[in-house]
Design goal:
Blueprint lengths: L5 E3 L7 E3 L5 E11 L8 E8 L5 E5 L3 E4 L4 E3 L15 E3 H5 L3 E4 L4 E11 L5 E10 L10 E5 L3 E2 L8 H10 L4 H9 L3 H10 L2 H8 L4 H10 L2 H10 L2 H8 L4 H10 L2 H11 L6 H4 L6 E2 L5 H8 L11 E5 L10 E6 H6 L17 E2 L4 H10 L4 E5 L5 E6 H8 L27
């Protein structure tokens, strides 16, 4: 079943939604679009489906593999059954736009009868066309139907009770997470929490990782606990563990219990390591492949968009199982070496193992010295059985070597480098 490039959303209302096994999970009731900066049509982020017992849930557009007027088909993965709640910067397309009185750029008044979403080459869906029926002033005559581009219709702006937040989010949407984090620090606390709560889970997770610990805790506390757990699931396990470390143990346990088990388990493991050691600062999800994987497979893996540059800079080679803790650790291959080797060659033939891996108990100053000595972007971390349990990357080292308040724009410099390369005033 193919997905058309353009879909009129009113025609999707009531269409059945199926999981990958062909079982019906509900029916489409609306589409969710996120308002963006002026001159850019809203981005469609998902659909609202009605489950049995009239429960409405959100289906991310990235989870949908096929859309047409006969059926909507979901890809593999866990279905989030949390009840859908619209956020301030979001638009329920059918509920809020159908029958809206608008004006075409020609000056003709009319009402919206349908709205189309269209996919770009990059796979992003956005509202693109609007079907508007003219007002004729006569009860017995239907006006002409116009199908025009979104930007040719006036009266389709941000709606709802929180327009100020929607407009602010539109201004901030294209910022890098670090820049958005700086912008949030300039807002009053209540406004900052309001804007943060309106971000989607993935975006908020990225921004939280760039904020001072105090702001992270306050924003997380302002969310309901299930939403907080959802955001923690979107964070890298090491960032989530750092944030949870700022909370009292009872609150840690509540949030970890609300997270999906496969997302919570690596975070629980990281929380067990002593502060300031390789175990506490490493990422537990580096790129890991078996020795019989090819160079071509390794290059495809490190090209995945969700990997940070530091994590994608090297591939670690280990025996099965390939999730941490792995089988016996064999070595690593830097991405520059991958670029120089024939695509069909096996990783086992080019693996490098002449640098001793870190142990989970290796202290941060020692990690810093070893990475500087060998000009490493990332180093493996193994347990006593020589199983790979994670990797320390250069961004991990920087985050934990700088003063604790380095992200706080209001904080005065309180730390300075000492002769041995550590930092005064840093507990870790």
């Amino acid at each position: 079943m193919s997905t058309p490039n353009r879909v009129y959303l009113a025609r999707l209302a009531g269409v059945a939604v199926f999981d990958p096994n062909g079982d019906q999970v509900g029916r489409v009731r609306d589409a969710v679009a996120r308002m963006r900066a002026t001159q850019r049509p809203p981005e469609v982020v998902g659909l609202v489906a009605e489950m049995p017992m009239r429960r409405r849930i959100f289906l991310s557009i990235n989870r949908i593999t096929s859309i047409d007027t006969d059926a909507v088909v979901l890809g593999s993965g866990t279905l989030n059954l949390r009840r859908f709640e619209k956020r301030p910067n979001e638009l329920l397309v059918l509920q809020e736009l159908l029958d809206r009185r608008v004006q075409l750029d020609s000056g003709q008044a009319g009402s919206v009868v349908d709205v189309a979403m269209e996919s770009s080459r990059g796979g992003e869906w956005a509202l693109s066309r609007v079907a508007v029926r003219e007002h004729t002033g006569r009860l017995t005559r239907r006006g002409h139907l116009h199908q025009v581009d979104w930007d040719r219709v006036r009266g389709l702006g941000a709606v709802g009770d929180n327009r100020g937040t929607a407009n602010l989010l539109a201004v901030l949407e294209d910022m890098r997470p670090a820049d958005l984090a700086n912008a949030l620090q300039d807002l009053p606390d209540a406004r900052r929490n309001e804007v943060a709560a309106a971000l989607d889970d993935e975006r908020l997770a990225d921004v939280l990782s760039e904020l001072p610990e105090r702001d992270q805790v306050e924003i997380l506390a302002a969310l309901d606990r299930q939403r907080a757990a959802d955001v923690l699931e979107e964070m890298e396990p090491d960032d989530a563990a750092d944030l949870l470390n700022e909370l009292p143990p009872p609150e840690q346990d509540v949030l970890l219990d609300l997270m999906e088990p496969d997302e919570a388990d690596p975070v629980r493991q990281l929380l067990r390591y002593a502060s300031g050691t390789a175990g506490s600062v490493m990422t537990s999800e580096p790129v890991i492949l078996p020795p019989d994987a090819t160079v071509a497979e390794a290059l495809a893996r490190i090209r995945e968009a969700q990997l940070s540059p530091a994590v994608a800079a090297q591939v670690f080679v280990a025996r099965a199982p390939l999730t941490t803790p792995t089988g016996r650790y064999l070595g690593m291959v830097h991405f520059q070496r991958l670029l120089r080797e024939p695509p069909a060659d096996l990783l086992g033939g080019i693996v490098v193992n002449d640098i001793d891996p870190l142990r989970t108990s290796t202290p941060l100053p020692e990690i810093t010295r070893r990475m500087a000595t060998y000009d490493m972007v990332g180093m493996p971390v193994v347990d006593r059985n020589n199983r790979l349990v994670g990797a320390v990357t250069v961004d991990d080292v920087l985050d934990h070597s700088l003063p604790r308040d380095w992200r706080d724009r209001d904080a005065a410099p309180t730390s300075s480098a000492t002769d041995d390369g550590t930092l005064d005033g840093d507990d870790e």
